[in-house]
């Protein structure tokens, strides 16, 4: 029987139709019995749809520079005030 961890590793292939018939049936059976994996695959499917819908958008020219600056700022803040983890 397919385990949750294995399903997580092949979920993209399942959604893309790249699994053989036997593995695809195993995934479907697992999804019928496991609500957590059903939710995972559903969320992954929605993510794929959203990414395809926005894949034609190009970020502003300075986007990566601003992103790098923000990441550096957050990391510096974390180093100055470590959390209680």
Automatic annotation (TrEMBL):
The keyword Zinc-finger appears for this protein: yes
Gene3D superfamilies on file: Anti-sigma factor, zinc-finger domain (1.10.10.1320)
Alphabetically ordered keywords of this record: Metal-binding, Zinc, Zinc-finger
MF terms (GO), sorted A to Z: zinc ion binding
Secretion signal span: none
Putative zinc-finger domain ranges (all copies): 4-38
UniProt keyword Iron, yes or no: no
Entry superkingdom: Bacteria
Protein name: Putative zinc-finger
């Amino acid at each position: 029987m397919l385990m949750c961890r294995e399903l997580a590793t092949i979920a993209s292939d399942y959604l893309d139709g790249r699994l053989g018939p036997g593995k695809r049936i195993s995934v479907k059976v697992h999804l019928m019995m496991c609500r957590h994996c059903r939710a995972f695959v559903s969320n992954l499917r929605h993510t794929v749809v959203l990414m395809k819908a926005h894949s034609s958008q190009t970020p502003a020219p300075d986007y990566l520079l601003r992103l790098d600056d923000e990441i550096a700022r957050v990391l510096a803040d974390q180093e100055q005030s470590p959390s209680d983890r």
